[in-house]
Automatic annotation (TrEMBL):
Name of the protein in question: GTPase IMAP family member 4-like
Basic and acidic residues: compositionally biased ranges: 262-275
Listed Pfam families: AIG1
Chain's gene name: LOC113891012
Chain ranges of the AIG1-type G domain: 20-222
Listed GO CC annotations: cytosol
Domain of life: Eukaryota
Keyword vocabulary terms for this entry: GTP-binding, Nucleotide-binding
A molecular function GO annotation: GTP binding
Transmembrane segments: none
Organism field: Bos indicus x Bos taurus
Alphabetical list of PANTHER family matching this protein: GTPASE IMAP FAMILY MEMBER 4 (PTHR10903:SF182), GTPASE, IMAP FAMILY MEMBER-RELATED (PTHR10903)
């Protein structure tokens, strides 16, 4: 995957794209690593189903959002996409869905790893993720260790001294870009770890000069989304014109009917007035009347 970087796009009408202010994060990691639980901790609500299970709980990529310092934080939870037993065709389908949800590209990829449970399977899944996203995605990767509560108060740096070599190598490779979460935490503890992570995300964004991760697939997805938006905008514009014309026609018809009615009422009033008006005594009428009362008549 040839990775490239893009600045946030502007909309064609010149207004700032609402996605400009977003922070888009994707949770990746092996099944059961605690991706959904981490998503819920960041969102501070149970948005993604999360439970202890040998089989994958999350079946499809899902999106949730929250706000942080006036910015929209968009989180995409993924299934165990990169588990070694998941067929590549399935993975590809879900990656496409994930791309649509995080288009035009995520600012950070949170690689979720359970503390003290990093098996060979986890290691293989991690390698698959890194290969899949490509070399340049590395700048955007943050290691997110879950199950901090299992450390029973031990400092994470003390834990690292005796941690599996693979974990220590990861930390070195990602230059200490990590966060440790207790997904069972509530209140101030939950708030603090969320704050630490989002500050780290901001740090990653700053180091990348505000750029998000993208690649040719993301760009194609974004082009497709923009095309669809345009088609919808044109459809709604045409529909709006059609409804406006229909309303105008109906109103004109109504006005025409009212005018006719008023005209008829006016005509009727005029006729009524004419009928009620006393008849004028014309000379012929007078002579006729006089004739009727002529004295000769009495003879
Ligand atoms: N005690 C404790 N349990 C955790 C922690 N993080 C996750 N869990 C538990 O681990 C189990 C698996 O977590 P999920 O969030 O469902 O894991 P997932 O990576 O989303 O799993 P899939 O959706 O199957 O890929 C759940 O029972 C969580 O409650 C943590 O920090 N501490
Ligand atoms: Mg899940």
């Amino acid at each position: 995957m040839a990775a490239q970087y893009l600045r946030e796009p502007r909309t064609s009408h010149g207004l700032a794209n609402p996605r400009d202010s977003q922070l888009r994060l994707v949770l990746v990691g092996k099944t059961g690593a605690g991706k959904s639980a981490t998503g819920n901790s960041i969102l501070r609500e149970e948005v993604f189903p999360s439970s202890f299970s040998a089989v994958s709980i999350t079946k499809h990529c899902e999106k949730g959002s929250s706000t942080w310092k006036g910015r929209e934080v968009v989180i995409v939870d993924t299934p165990g996409l990169f588990d070694t037993e998941v067929p590549d065709s399935e993975t590809l389908k879900e990656i496409t869905r994930c791309m649509v949800l995080t288009s035009p590209g995520p600012h950070a990829l949170l690689l979720v790893i359970p503390v003290g449970r990093y098996t060979l399977e986890d290691q293989k899944a991690t390698e698959k993720i890194l290969t899949m996203f490509g070399e340049r995605a590395r700048e955007h990767i943050i290691l997110l260790f879950t199950w901090k509560d299992d450390l029973k108060g031990m400092d994470f740096r003390d834990y690292l001294k005796h941690a599996p070599t693979a974990i220590r190598e990861l930390i070195r490779e990602f230059r200490d870009r990590y966060c440790v979460f207790n997904n069972k935490a509530t209140g101030a503890e939950q708030e603090n770890q969320r704050e630490q992570l989002l500050a780290l995300v901001q740090d990653v964004v700053d180091k990348c000069n505000g750029r998000y991760y993208t690649n040719s697939l993301y760009q194609k997805t974004e082009e497709e989304i923009q095309k669809q938006i345009q088609v919808l905008q044109e459809y709604y514009r045409a529909e709006l014109e059609r409804v406006k014309a229909q309303i105008k026609q109906e109103l004109e018809e109504e006005i025409r009917k009212l005018k006719d009615e008023l005209e008829q009422q006016k005509r009727k009033r005029h006729q009524d007035r004419e009928c009620r008006r006393p008849k004028k005594m014309t000379p012929s009428f007078l002579s006729l009347s006089l004739e009727k009362i002529s004295p000769l008549d009495s003879f």
